[in-house]
Design brief:
The complex is a heterodimer of chains A (407) and B (258). The radius of gyration of chain A is 23 Å and the shape is globular. Helices cover 72% and strands 3% of the residues of chain A. The longest helix of chain A is centred in the C-terminal third of the chain and has 27 residues. Chain A is mainly alpha-helical and 407 residues long. In chain A, α3 runs antiparallel to α15 and α5 packs antiparallel against α10. Chain A starts with a helix and ends in a 6-residue tail after the last helix. A two-stranded antiparallel sheet of chain A has the order 1-6. In chain A, strands 2-3 form a two-stranded antiparallel sheet. Chain A has a two-stranded antiparallel sheet with strand order 4-5. Chain B has a six-stranded mixed beta sheet with strand order 6-7-8-3-9-10, with helices on both faces. In chain B, strands 2-1-4-5 form a four-stranded antiparallel beta sheet, covered by helices on one side. Chain B is an alpha/beta fold and 258 residues long. In chain B, a hairpin with a 2-residue loop joins β4 and β5. Classes of the chains: A mainly alpha (407), B alpha/beta (258).
Amino acid sequence: MSKEKTAEKRNSGVPLLTAAMIWLAVFFTLYLNYNLSLPFLAVIVIAILTLEKKGVIESAYTACIKGRKIFLLAMLVGAILLPLALSARPYALHIGVLVCIYAILALGLNFQMGSADMVNFAPAAFFGIGAYTTGILTMNLGISPWFGVIIAAVVTCILGGLVGAPTLRTKGYYLSLVTMALQLIFSLVIVNIKAVGGPNGMAGLPGFAIGSFSLHQAHDFFGIRLPYQANYLYLALLLLAVLLFVAYRVNLSSKGLALNNIGQDEVVARCLGININKEKLFAFCIGGAFCGIAGAFYGHYMSFVGPDDYDFSKSLMIICMVILGGMDNPLGVTVGAFLLIGANEKLRDFADYQMLIYGLILMTALWLRPQGLIPKRVRNYELLFHKKVVLGPNKEKKEAVLPASEE
Amino acid sequence: MALLETKGLSVAFGGLWAVNGVDFQMEAGDVVGLIGPNGSGKTTFLNLISGLYRPTKGAILLNGEDISALKPYEIFRKGIGRTYQSSRLCWDLSVIDNVLLGVNNKHEMGFWSNVFRAKKSDAEIFRHLEKALELLDYFNPKLVDKKYELAQNITHIDRRRVELSRILVSEPKVILIDELTAGLNQEETLHIMDDIKKIKSWLPDIGMIIIEHDMNVMQSIPNKIVVFNAGEKIAEGSYSDIIQDEQVISAYLGGAAI
């Protein structure tokens, strides 16, 4: 399909091709069995590295921004087709949902770790707080899961601020230690509170439903029987798209720039009119809200909230996604989440060696490419806003005032 | 009313008075040179004005308003910008992003409008962008072509110019320049001196405090020179007065020289 259109319209070729490549890579990674899919993931990584080195990704990125309408449309078509194409494999759909959830978590952490260089070791704690919040509310008060997600986001946002406040006094390693302690405290507290099930967790969270359309049941869709995971994959893709958009806009805005400045040189940031406490809290709040949304979604999807899903190793995994994918690049961390969840789930068959292989993958990646697979891009304002800067009429005026510099 | 004034400004680190009882005044349009031996408290004086250190005693007045209790970011917003002894740009950001940092606090658009009213906030970023590029063009037209280069990839003198643009784009009332020529060779020093003269002719009302060891710079640029020694102001006046001042000579060459 993409080839025919390439012939028709040259400009739209690259965006269409890029979208097609992205969805094909996603599809095959999820569809193949682990013995084929792991080599395929390796091929993807090598392909990304090679293309990045040759500048192909850069030019594809430029072309996709120029033809963004076509690119987004193609991505939308791909997103609609993906669950249909995977309808025979519920497990592949399940991995797809997990990828979206972890991509949201990585996006949340990216505000702190990627943009502002504050390594927060507790994203999984916020993930868990989101899940437990909605779990308690929906199971005990019987409110709708949709409201559960919203309240979870608000709660984690506020908690992010509360956790962020004491860490404002610390920097670098010390901040990381504080958040690490928070993560461990969270795990211990959750295991010891009987009301939320202790080590057994809470089971039986209600699934999402739109009116009478329950997302927790299989439905027929144009004659194709879609397992319930497909409904969730649609919802997860939608959620990821919205949050990716938010992350991208924040990254581009003055907020993103201020966070970058804080990450690189706090003294300079303070002397440039940036209220660093406010901006750091902002990073914690929005990051917390992202993690909370992901947690609430995950809880309702799995119908279960238990302490094991939100422990320290999960935090490390999310951190690895950000590092591997590319710090401070929303698209990069999404790719990181995709690769690591893909590899992680496929490695379940070697449960004993899972973490070992996982660690090896990560070490190799970091050794070969510390800046991440898709490193952060320079903000090219003229390209992004479709507008050229014309140096204003003031130019001549100023030069007239000036003494010639040869004097 | 003086543009910037300090009254008995002092700061102590433990038992050491790094700046001790400095009374200082400058009017709009003044360019003040700050000289003194190493460790005489020049940079500490700038750090006090820019709010990085809290004064132990004394007051700092900007247009008659006491700013000595404000935080650095508030002081910057009041209109005092500064540069540093070594250039401190954000090396991972592009040249233009570094300049845009100077107007970062002037964005009226908050988080929600950035996300949901994209067109308006983009227009705002673009307005700042044009202003920033004009400044770069003004110092060195070649920098405009390098606007998307990372700051780590440009030459040292251009980094200094980016730093100056970053301050000027915020339309400050006072700029504090700490050893701009450090690490520059003779020719580059002349260029950067030209740049300072440009600023002066372009923005005649701006107040500048310049710390500099290069006496050629001190001779040609400032209209007033203040000499520091051991945290105290020991002399003030024009260049020709200063070089004949006995206290200054003794501070630089040691008491035995007289």
